[in-house]
Specification:
- 30% of the residues lie in helices and 25% in strands.
- By secondary structure, the protein is α+β, with helices and mostly antiparallel strands.
- A 5-stranded mixed sheet has the order 6-5-1-7-8. It has a 3-stranded antiparallel sheet with strand order 2-4-3, with no helix packed on it. Strands 9-10 form a two-stranded antiparallel sheet.
């Protein structure tokens, strides 16, 4: 109805082979450009909305499982989610102390990858766009424990004007690092800066 087509007497819909050819006609270059267009539109919209009042831009990356059914290409079993799935990663931005988050990136990935796969490239593109659209604003990257990969941490450490934290949410680990229970503990996110003057990061350090 919305497409001005009667479901009974209207023209025939495209066949499954036609839909498959259409789906597979989109190449990686086009997908990359679509991702760029999404990020650019989000940044442009909020740059106009805030008009120079963006003091802090927070960027969150989150992997999520997308369960599959049947023999779909790149569908694999994921032990963490205990299902056959894809594992796309989503990027969200928020501004200043606003609670609302805005989708600015979505990348489909096979179901058997780790959370950190492809994250560095996604972060690099988004950080560059945020810096261009919001000059002078501080940028904060928040990641969960699945992104705790040395290569990704080195990349984030090398970025200027960037705060980043990796949250480890594991009850056993939190108990192990509980105050008084070990000689190793969490340094709170708000207390530690690195030697280049970056904003606080999550670290592990020896207790005296």
């Amino acid at each position: 109805m919305l497409l001005d087509r009667d479901p009974i007497t209207g023209r025939e819909l495209a066949s499954q082979p036609t839909l498959s050819r259409f789906e597979n006609s989109i190449r990686p270059r086009e997908l990359y450009r679509l991702g760029e267009a999404l990020a650019d539109s989000v940044m442009e919209r909020h740059a106009q909305r805030l008009r120079g009042r963006a003091r802090l831009v927070t960027l969150d990356l989150d992997p999520t499982d997308d369960p599959t059914h049947g023999a779909q290409q790149l569908s694999f079993f994921n032990g963490y989610y205990d299902s056959w799935c894809y594992l796309p990663v989503m990027g969200f931005v928020s501004f200043n102390n606003e609670a609302e988050q805005y989708l600015c990136a979505a990348v489909l990935r096979p179901g058997n990858v780790t959370a950190a796969v492809g994250a560095k490239g996604i972060l690099r593109r988004l950080i560059n766009r945020i810096s261009y659209s919001f000059p002078g604003a501080r940028i904060r990257v928040r990641l969960d424990g699945g992104f705790a990969h040395p290569d990704l941490r080195d990349f984030l450490d090398a970025e200027s004007n960037l705060a980043h934290g990796i949250r480890i949410q594991n009850s056993g680990l939190e108990n192990y690092f509980a105050p008084g229970g070990s000689n190793v503990g969490f340094t709170p996110f708000t207390e530690k800066c690195d030697n280049r003057g970056h904003d606080p990061q999550l670290r592990l350090e020896d207790r005296p």
